[in-house]
Predict the structure.
Amino acid sequence: MHLDIYRLDKDNSVELYPHSHITGQVFVIERGLVRTTALGADDPDGETVMSPGNWCLMPGQIGWMPPRVVHSAVVHGPVRGFGLHLPPELCGPLPRTARIVAQTALTAALLDRMSGWVPGPVIDPARQRLLQVLLDELPNAPALPNGLPLPQDPRLLRFAQALLETPDDKTPLADWAARLAMTERTLARRFTAETGQTCGQWRQQARLFRALELLADGEPVLTVALSVGYDSLSAFGAAFRRQFGQSPARFRTSGGLGPTA
C-alpha cells in the first residue's frame, strides 16, 4: 500500500483554485475552518458521480473527496490539520460523493496515529492493519449536515449563487420566482427536487455557512449576525447552536476548537 500524508498548516486564509486528484483524499483539521466546493467529476470513464455542492469542515470531523472530483477550497486561518491521499485501488469501498462525516473515538485515534507517519509506502504489517481498519470504518461513519448541494438547472443555480453571494438578502421567494420567469410553486418544487432541501432550509444553511467563515476570520459576532441576514443576536445564536452544537462566540474565540456536535 502507498499512502501519502501531508500537513495542512496555514497561518492566514488561503484560496485553493479548482483542481482534482487521481487519488482519494481524507482530511481533518484540528483548528480553523475549510470550505470546499465540488464542481463535478473529471472522470472520462464515468466511474465517479459528483453533483456540485459546498461543504464546511470543522474540527472533530472528517472530510472525504473521491478521486477525480474537481474542487476548490478556502482555508480560513489559522488552520492546523493533515490529510491522506489514498490510491484509487483503496477507494472502492468508500463513498463515491464528497461528504463530511463525524469522527468516532476509533477513527480519531487512527487518524492521530497516522498523522505521525512518514509519507510513502505503508510496508509495516501493523500499519497496514490500522489503515485497513480506517477504510472499514469510514463508509459507516455518520454523514453530517454540513453540505450545501447546488442545483444544476441554470435558473435555480443563479438563484442559489445569489443567496451565497448576498446571504443577508431578504427578497421574498415570489419576487425571485418572477425574476426567474416561473411561478413560486414551481421554483420551490424544482429547488427541493434538485437539492433535497426547501428554499428556506437552503437559505438558512447558506447563511450559517457564511457565518462560520466570517467567525473563523475573527469578525465580531454581532457584525456576523447582521451580515448574514439575522435581525437579532438571539435568533442567530439559536440557529447556530442547533446547526453546530456550540455558540458563535465560542466558535470564534476558540478558533473552531472543541466539540461540534
Remarks:
- The chain has a mean pLDDT of 87.
- The chain has nine helices and nine strands.
